[in-house]
Write a structure and sequence with these properties.
Chain lengths: 427, 182
């Protein structure tokens, strides 16, 4: 590293091939780096005096009851597929990861995956029932639940079908279209263990079956051990009541586990001795292997990362310094390390983990990169605090076979062409 | 712990050591859960367990099921349920395809228990009027779909006793994820 001298002759040292720079470079050398790397400053050719923009000379809008994004951000929307007109709400929308930064997903952009539609639940007419292998079956209405001690955690939710498109194909869409079935929020609610304490557990209790109050009533089984550990009956998302499409007035949060067990609109929990093997967890959400057998209850989402900036379909304007940044997460625990390559995996450098590093939570990573204008292949590889390493495409495929669409977590490379265009590739 | 508090106060959330959750303070439970009557519980408890327990009274045949199918299901699932141009997983077919390069996972070829066919249809279908089927209709539709998949005989009357005894082609095809296996 070249101390505090920043003249062009004294270029910062690379930490890995094809221009990756030390992760703390931006912090230590600040903006002067751009000069050091030979990016010309945008010198103004104007001779006339600049004009003040309107908003500096006129009053703007007034106060508002619920703030909305700027009209210039109108394009920042959840990404939708082509729904079937007979059942338009069955399907999913994805978080536009390429348009966001940080680790929290805004509530209106949290991905959706519905098996029927979004119910319009009146919270005053909604109750949570717990019954089955319990000592006393009990029901709570909203006003009762509001008096319980609450807990807040920041956790990701990822659909197990996320990235399925990247498993068999190499789509040239956007990182959100391919990998946007993952979002991250602060969830606040009541630990399920508090409520199970109150009902008590009867002999033989070893799983719970949770059911949603939507039209098709999603049914998922969860091991009792997990239920008593960190499962929350969540009422709030990022400080406000959960949005209807995320489970208003309450959903289960099952940290680190596939999206569909985080049952939305939860209204009933039955404590049982065996999992329910319902259609939603056998016909769906099982991992069919090459030999024709299928794994069921593969609930934990494995370690994964992707670069969001730059990513497929973007175009780099000109050679120079860029921040390569992305997201890493693991259902097993916290992210310990994210490595980034710019030369297609020949060499790797550690990215900076930026912001709080929490278990079962999206973690933003960043690393400066000096693009020379030549071809480059960028990719990230995450390692969690249990030592799980994000696999290559080949290893990820070998795990569940080529058939299943779920739980794909292979390394995602992006190729930068000399034109600056970023494409999805295999490495 | 106090170092963590300090780090949090100073906004230094970068280190993972301080970012793990603190133990919740023991809090007396308000104990506000309300008891339910047997009738209330029976109304809400529609879970059918793997062994068929909690299946309701009622029955149906596949011939009766075909009539209901044509009225209430064919619009979305096709004239027989075997159609592949519906943008839905076909309800019929796929036998023997699971270990091939083109597996077809239908309720006949893939689902491990016959009881969950009844459970799913009764709670989720028809899509435009879920939970509207009578138990007899749901048994009859189950009979029709099992019959059309070649799993049961035409003559079988499907009810709470006969349904759990039906052997599904893929009943041994599922393996518990290692982390939950006992």
């Amino acid at each position: 590293m070249s101390g505090d001298k920043t003249d062009a002759a004294d270029e910062p040292e690379q930490v890995a091939g094809n221009g990756l720079l030390h992760r703390r470079l931006f912090l230590t050398q600040g903006l002067t780096l751009a000069g050091a790397l030979g990016v010309a400053g945008q010198a103004s050719a104007q001779t006339a005096l600049p004009k003040r923009p309107d908003w500096m000379t006129r009053q703007g809008a007034g106060l508002s009851g619920y703030g909305q994004p700027s009209k210039f951000e109108e394009g920042v929307k959840r990404l939708t597929g082509q729904p079937n007109p007979l059942f338009p709400s069955v399907g999913s929308t994805r978080t536009p990861l390429e348009k966001l930064n940080g680790m929290i997903t805004p509530n209106g952009l949290h991905f959706e995956r519905h098996h029927s539609s979004v119910p319009d639940i009146n919270p005053d007419a909604h109750r949570l029932l717990i019954h089955g292998l319990v000592r006393k079956p009990l029901a709570w209405d909203m006003s009762a639940l509001a008096r319980y001690p609450m807990t807040s955690v920041i956790r990701f939710i990822e659909c197990s079908g996320n990235s399925g498109a990247a498993k068999r194909n190499v789509p040239q869409t956007s990182v959100g279209q391919i990998h946007g079935l993952v979002s991250c929020s602060e969830w606040t609610g009541i630990k399920l263990s508090h409520l199970l304490d109150e009902t008590g557990l009867a002999d033989g209790a070893s799983w719970i079956i949770a059911e949603g109050a939507e039209a098709s009533s999603m049914v998922r089984s969860i091991p009792l051990e997990t239920a008593l550990d960190d499962v929350i009956v969540a009422l709030y998302q990022n400080g406000e009541r959960i949005r209807p499409e995320q489970g208003y007035p309450m959903r289960l949060l099952v940290p680190g586990c596939e999206g569909s067990v985080n049952v939305k609109w939860v209204h009933r929990i039955k404590v049982v001795s065996e999992p329910g093997d319902s259609r939603d967890e056998t016909g769906q959400y099982t991992d069919l292997m090459a030999d024709g057998r299928a794994l069921k209850y593969t609930l934990l989402m494995d370690v994964k990362s992707l670069i969001t900036h730059p990513s497929v379909s973007m175009k780099l304007a000109q050679p120079g310094v860029y921040e390569v940044s992305g997201l890493a997460w693991s259902g097993h625990g916290a992210i310990r390390r994210v490595e980034v390559t710019a030369d297609g995996g020949k060499s790797w450098a550690d990215a900076e983990l930026s912001g709080p590093v929490l278990p079962k939570c999206l973690t933003r990573f960043r690393i400066p990169w000096s693009w020379t204008g030549g071809p480059a292949t960028l990719a990230s590889r995450a390692i969690d605090d249990r030592g799980n390493v994000q696999p290559t495409h080949e290893v990820a495929i070998a795990r569940y076979g080529e058939i299943g669409a779920y739980h794909y977590n292979g390394i995602q490379p992006w190729a930068v062409a000399q034109t600056g265009e970023v494409a999805n590739v295999r490495m | 712990m106090s170092a963590c508090r300090f780090a949090l106060a100073a906004g230094l959330l970068l280190t993972s050591g301080c970012a793990t959750q603190t133990k919740p303070v023991a809090h007396p439970a308000p104990n506000l859960g309300q008891a339910m009557t047997e009738a209330e519980l029976a109304f809400w408890d529609t879970s059918i367990l793997v062994d068929g327990s909690n299946l309701p009274a009622g029955s149906g045949s596949s011939a009766q099921g075909l009539i209901v199918y044509k009225q209430k299901c064919a619009a979305c699932h096709g004239a027989t349920g075997a159609e592949t141009d519906t943008r839905l997983t076909p309800l019929i077919g796929g036998m023997g395809s699971l270990a091939t390069a083109q597996p077809v996972r239908t309720l006949g070829s893939y689902w491990p228990h016959a009881t969950i066919v009844f459970d799913y249809i009764r709670r989720a279908m028809p899509y435009n009027a879920p939970k509207s089927l009578s138990n007899d209709e749901a048994y009859a539709l189950t009979a029709y779909l099992l019959r059309a998949n070649g799993i049961i005989d035409e003559a079988l009357i499907v009810d709470r006793t006969t349904l759990p005894a039906v052997k599904m082609p893929n009943q041994n095809g599922f393996v518990m994820a290692p982390e939950h296996a006992k």
